[in-house]
Amino acid sequence: MNRREFLKVSGAFLLASEMLTKDLFAGEAPVVAVAEGQDYGAITRAAVNAVGGMGRFVKAGNIVVVKPNMGWDRKPEQAATTHPLVVKSLVEECLKAGAKRVKVFDNPCNDARRSYENSGIPDALKDLKNVEVKFMEDERYKKVDLKGVFLKEWELYGEALSADVFINAPIAKHHSLTGLTLALKNMMGIMGGNRGFIHRQIEDALADVNAYQKSHLVLIDATRILTAHGPTGGSLRDVKVLNKVIASTDIVAADAYATGLFGLKAESIAITARAYKRGLGEMNLEKVKVVKA
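^ thats the sequence. predicted structure below, dont judge the formating
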């Protein structure tokens, strides 16, 4: 077999593999994968593999954004931000799948430098090549015509919008205003402007943003959850260690499952219920395929 024939056969094989992967997940109930264990890197990989593997989402040469929660000046053990080992595993899987560059950022509510540093995420990623962990810059926001129910237009971060793959990686935690903050609400971290304004009608505002900017993969960090005094937390008395992560391509299904970890029903969280009503995913877990990874 000469080189040209080899490339032709290899290309056909890769195309067939991609089509098979799509066929396996097309037309089926949404899949939510749950992995449990004390090795946070391993359970993150297991959960991603259970929904098709990172190669299902990331192709050679892609620019990928991994959007964790780095919004608060808190240490990882305080359960206000995504665990650094979960983020590291996601980034490593993106690189293995052929990502050209992986960008990791958030728009913190607390001081950005302290929030980034204390999250432990920059330190966890410092030795990885082709990875950027950087502060979000005002000039990189773009006013977007959302045509939403509540937000007709808003400033969203340009590098999130232009990425080939967007991975939404929040921590599961209590929120004093919205009940919980999960993947749907994690999208506030790509919003600029006066984010306080959206609390007037936060359910529709977040549905508007999520309808515009889709999460190709959702990975919810429930290695430890904040059960009270969120979203900032601070006391270890409010932290419950679960050693779990949740993966799905359906952001509503992922949030609905994670809600159960708090002993709550998905319909009791207005953000989840509104996103379901707006057709952004499945909230009824009886219609979701939950798999243990």
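The chain has ten helices and twelve strands.
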